[in-house]
Amino acid sequence: MRYAKTLAVVAVGLAIGMVARSAYQSAHRVEAMIAHFDRVCRSAYDGNFVSEAAREAFEGKAPPEMIWDGASKTFAEVQHSRCAVFEGENLFNNEDREQFELAVADYLAKAFPQLTFDPKAELDSFDLFKFWAQYSLNDPRRWGIMISRVERPTDLTAIVENWSLVRTEIKIVIPH
Length: 176
Hints:
Shape: globular
Oligomer: single chain
Strand content: 15-25%
Radius of gyration: 19 Å
Structural class: alpha+beta
Helix content: 25-40%
Order of helices and strands: HHEEEHEEEEE
Number of domains: 1
Number of strands: 8
Number of helices: 3
């Protein structure tokens, strides 16, 4: 009987530990994905590229540059006039996606206070599409950050050109 009680206590403890670890890893991965965007894409926006290869890709002088982040399990893709951070093969679950959407809104409010959420920006084919912008729709200086997702994947992307060329991602759109 004592063996069964000990085994039950160990099993319950392991289950609680696994749930707590999973919750911590999800929150950490969401934060890590935003940090990866900040390190690669926001720095590109600021002109401080993470590498010379990223600078050349961003300027259109070299092929796209892929930068993996093990903490978030996401890729940053720097290419001509854009930078995207998106999930790799390990997609967020529904709870993580909701947490990511809220965390991005908080991040943008702090990192890009000049941007305003544009409730009129939408794409019907996306299950998530949000856009924060500076300047009006027809203003050539218009730029901003968008989150977009078709079904499950979630990405964070920086674009510097035609923001209507959308992939499954979250993007920062920067004027020339």
